[in-house]
Each structure stands twice: as structure tokens, then as C-alpha cells.
Write a structure and sequence with these properties.
Blueprint (H helix, E strand, L loop, with lengths): L9 H5 L3 E5 L3 H13 L3 E5 L23 H12 L4 E5 L8 H5 L4 E4 L4 H8 L18 E5 L10 E3 L3 H8 L1
Parallel strand pairs: 1-2, 1-4, 2-3, 4-5
Antiparallel strand pairs: 5-6
Amino acid sequence: FMMARHTPGVHQKIKKAVVGIPGLGGLGSTVAIALARVGVGKLILVDFDVVEPSNLNRQQYFLHQIGMPKVEALQAILSKITPMLSIQCYNERLERENVERIFRDADVVVEAFDRAEEKAMLINAEGARVAAGTVNEAGLPLIHISTDYVFDGSRAGAYVAKPEEVDDLRN
């Protein structure tokens, strides 16, 4: 039934995609649900936090999930939306030293952190070399999403960093 959602041939490509999402708050949880609905084959979810009452006004969680680790709560939601979706969860803080281990199999990483420091950490992660919007030496694309921090200061949204803009995050 997933093929019925797409133009012929599109589903064959999408179902092979592996997408990493560090940060499962308002942006990350919404992106994960959208990708599950479109038929992405595998999601790698990373967050160390738990669902709190203050999350419910903007994040994709439910009242009965309060206190649950976000990775577990989101996995339960995604499994109901698309049971055939492969989901790999990491209930841990993403740090420079574990980026490579966690996102080794990802085709793309959709960065959805809250804080600029976390965004910079991912860009500057162990072994990372940003060139034309890539996050590591293997050429892994990194998509930045933000509601309150943007590179040019004009508006929030999705953005692929240019190498010269990475220095702005380091300062």
C-alpha cells in the first residue's frame, strides 16, 4: 500500500533510505512522523530526554507517554503509523565521540537540536570535515532545522550549511 502514495519508481528509492534524527523535540518528532508516512525505510532516532508535560503543546507525544524516554515514545507512535518501518533507537546524549558509531549507516542526518552548541558539536564531530554541506568524510549530508537559531538571522526553517557559515557556529 505504500507504493500507492507515490509516483511510480519513487517508493523504490524512498524505502531504501536511512535517515538519522538527533533531537526528538518539536522538530525532530514531527520530521520523524513525516518521514514514516512518506515511506522511508529506516530511521535512526537519538535523544536522551524524556517526555514532559511542557512538551505536549508542540511535540508529537501523548499524555500517557509522560515520563517515557522520547526514543521509546516516538518508536511506539511510528510503529503504529508504518509497522514496516525499521527504527533504531539511541537513548543517549549525542556527543562528538559517538556520532560516527550512531550514524554510520545513515544516508542523511536531519539535525533537530534545540541549542546552537549542539548543532556546532554535530558539525565539528569526531572525524568530521564539513565541505559543501556534508557532515563527515564519507560525505554524509546534514540538514539543519531550527525554530530559534538560524545561520543568517532572517527566519527559521530547514537549511544545509555552507562551509563558511560553520565558523559562525563555532564562535
